[in-house]
Amino acid sequence: MPALLILAACAVVLLLWAWHFPHPSPLIRPLLPAKRRWPEAQIRQWLATDRVARGFRHFFERDPERRVPSEPGLLAPADGLITSLDVRDDIRYVVIALSFWDVHVQRSPCDGVIEAVEEQGDTFMDGEGREFAFLRAKTCPVQKRVRIRSTRGLIALRLITSLAARRIEVWYEPGTTVVRGQRLGRILLGSTVVLEMPAQWPCTITVGQRVCAGETLVEPAQAGVA
């Protein structure tokens, strides 16, 4: 009898492995890190059929608390990888690429008042975030641009869609006062966030660095200024 139970258990394990191959079996999935638990190819298959697994959806919608640093200065508005810090027309474009496994809630880089929430773009496309940084008219990704006026000047935050990420939420209207590190909105599934800041402000991050929304200092301000 024990031998039959062992054989039956082995058969179940093999069936689950074969059924989910080449993706991880549900028996080992909880033990794996996020990128191996839900491989990119599997996520894209779900998106193509509009049937995202409940476990991944729950993981994706997580919204952990953040510790806003006491040091003054601009904070990263999104979790992700810095892919570009290009400067054009006296504006530095801090491009943050979000993967499927990053937290997708965006936060305010500074204290200030939302001046405008602008709808831009006319299509959904994939590409390098660096290419998207300067696209604002005609053929460019659908995006929302949030302008925030702080005591130090004007910054802007752009939430950009992709083929996979077609829905953007901005949770506040123009005229709303926001504080540094406050939740502002989110993009559903991996995409790009661009922070526009004056080029003369010093920048403490580098291309290839991973940043955390509401925690990573992007630019140090003078003491007492957020």
UniProtKB/TrEMBL annotation:
> Which GO terms fall under molecular function for this chain's record?
phosphatidylserine decarboxylase activity
Q: What Pfam families has UniProt attached to this entry?
A: PS_Dcarbxylase (PF02666)
Which portions of this protein are annotated as coiled-coil regions? none
Q: Which UniProt keywords apply?
A: Cell membrane, Decarboxylase, Lipid biosynthesis, Lipid metabolism, Lyase, Membrane, Phospholipid biosynthesis, Phospholipid metabolism, Pyruvate, Zymogen
Q: Does Membrane show up as a keyword for this record?
A: yes
Q: Which InterPro entries match?
A: PS_Dcarbxylase, PSD-A
Top-level lineage group: Bacteria
Kindly state a single biological-process term from the GO annotations of this entry: phospholipid biosynthetic process
Q: Which PANTHER family match?
A: ARCHAETIDYLSERINE DECARBOXYLASE PROENZYME-RELATED
Return the protein name. Phosphatidylserine decarboxylase
Source organism of the structure: Acidihalobacter ferrooxydans
